């Protein structure tokens, strides 16, 4: 079933309208009145309401004041909502270091054009001194720390796996706070 059909407002108003029409038809049938007379009265009522609204005498200065109030109100709402959304940065942006898959990792975030963030500059760091590790070894299968001269085995898929784990940690730890 469509999402809008489950909306309580749609259900309440729809039930009232349909129930009113059915009740009106039932009463017309019981009283022996032509059932189209009710629809004619409803259509006439709506038409008279529209005509009365369109023929309402309105002063131009009323319109100008109403438009000015609406513009000022929209401006204030835009300023308030804009200032609140610009000053509050997501809490997950503080999560920039972690230990996983046998390596310590550091990364930054880049804000995309659509306002979402992506992980960037993801790299392993030395667990002893915190320096960024350099890929080396015979076939690039080791990560070396130039300061400590320590090495660790390396597989190229580890960086992608680390990014998946980081995204999962963000989703699990920070999604209920947003």
How do you describe this structure in short?
The protein is of the alpha+beta class.
Estimate the strand proportion.
15-25%
The Rg value, from CA coordinates, equals: 33 Å
Widest sheet: strand ordering? 1-2-3
Secondary-structure element pattern, one letter each: HHHEEEEEEH
Would you kindly provide a written description of the structure presented here, covering whatever features stand out?
It contains four helices and six strands; from the N terminus they run αααββββββα. The protein has 178 residues and is α+β, with helices and mostly antiparallel strands. The strands form two sheets. A three-stranded antiparallel β-sheet has the order 1-2-3. It has a three-stranded antiparallel β-sheet with strand order 4-5-6, with no helix packed on it. Strand 4 (134-136) and strand 5 (142-144) form a beta hairpin. The mean pLDDT is 82.
Question: Which keywords apply here?
Answer:
4 helices; 3-stranded antiparallel sheet; 178 residues; 6 strands
Indicate the topology.
Blueprint (H helix, E strand, L loop, with lengths): L7 H24 L4 H19 L5 H28 L9 E4 L2 E9 L5 E9 L8 E3 L5 E3 L6 E3 L3 H18 L4
